[in-house]
Amino acid sequence: MLNYSKSKPEKVLNAWAFYDWANSVYPLVISTAVFPIYYMALFVESDYIDFLGLNLKNTALIQYVTSFTFFLLALMIPLMSGIADFLGNKKNFMKFFVYTGSFSCIALYFFDLNNIYSGIFFYLLALFSFWASLVFYNSYLPDIVKPEDHDRASALGYSYGYFGSVILLLFNIIMINFPDFFGFENSGIGKLQAMKVSFVTVGIWWLLFSQYSFYFLPSKKNKNMFSGLKKSIIFSGFNELYNVWIILKKNKYIKQFLIAFFTFSTAVQTIVLIATYFGENEINWMEGEKTTGLIISMLLIQLIAIVGSIGGAMISKKLGNAKTLIIFNISWFIICIIAYFIESTTEFYIVACMVGLVMGGIQSLSRSTYSKLIPKTEKTCSFFSFYQMCMIVSIVLGTFLSGIIDQLTGSIRSSILLFASLFLIGSYLLKGLEVK
């Protein structure tokens, strides 16, 4: 552990974990719960839209935009993380993306079909900023926590995130279902207005609560920074990444984990992103039940994910990280097979609970497993950029393939079989992985 913080270790850990509390409202409210419902509600006359000269299905469009955003992340994050490690100022990078993402969420208030291009731009910018901030956030884990505490610390962060995001989502649910109480019309238009305001609440929440983390997270400046500036900072950033790549190539267990992680992350992250669109199009909702039902489903996922993240850490303590991850992958495979056949709302709620349980465990344990595998170093940003890159490129692949399947078949349901196969492959690739 790199102890360059003057603060008490436990206080720094809590401040680090609390950033999950601050940022997790974005993936819950924007990515999975409210924004997808708002987005789909805009397409009253047709499910297709002309965008950049192409006639695209609405769900395919948002998946293509998501895929393109992660493609940009794949290009930019290695460069930014290398520079951050070289300059020693990853907190400043993290701050920049938090502020950019927060204000982009607020700007989503103006998203509608008349402003489709500016709306898509702010959707893209918020998504880019959220994931970029996670590179610098995750890289703090090996800096502030001893290896034997990585599972517990990672689970703590995810638990904070799941719990905090639920609080804001509950507020948004009340606002959307009782719009007249908050000064909106008691109609469909009022509900849409309340959804738009919920995007603003996400930006404010993310911005305000991240300040606690920024206050306690350590900063470290590169004392030899100016001597290193004889070369371009950009080339120095790439040089840092090249050195990390040399180390990664020599460690067979890191390579094995990253390949397996890329495989099952393609399925996990894409499922999280398209879950609400699946529920919107493929489930037989009763009249007036859809909006509330979809939000409640996402709420169930978040609440049960708390149990999953903590439970995953407890199981890994007895069985080890690799075996626990294999169990989670097989569980995901079973859930996918079940989800392919569901049509009723009750079935959708049950599957949502199952998804929450395994989602919390696999996300938390994947992060802590990687943090245990990488060597002790001050260049944690560069190492975690490879981890984040695997996740980002996997999302590019997953959302792109899912978008194609949706566009060609007219149904997002067929994508589930692809995800199921990836979980089987992921569990096989984890066999023999040793994590000390």
Weakly predicted, low-confidence segments: 1-7, 225-231
- CATH second-level architecture: Up-down Bundle
The largest sheet is:
2 strands, antiparallel
The level of helicity is over 70%
- SS field, number of helical segments: 16
Here the CATH topology equals: Growth Hormone, Chain: A
Count of structural domains = 1
CATH superfamily: MFS general substrate transporter like domains
Strand arrangement within the widest β-sheet reads 1-2
* Strand content bin: under 5%
Summarize model confidence as the mean pLDDT.
82
Q: Would you report the number of β strands?
A: 2
**Distance linking N and C termini:** 15 Å
Report on the architecture of this protein.
The chain has 436 residues and is mainly α. It has a single domain, classed as MFS general substrate transporter like domains (Growth Hormone, Chain: A), CATH 1.20.1250.20. The chain has 16 helices and two strands. The chain has helices at 9-23, 25-41, 58-87, 90-107, 116-138, 141-144, 150-177, 188-216, 225-228, 233-250, 252-282, 290-319, 321-341, 345-373, 380-409, 415-429, and strands at 48-51, 54-57. The longest helix is centred in the middle third of the chain and has 31 residues, at 252-282. Mean pLDDT is 82; it is low at 1-7 and 225-231.
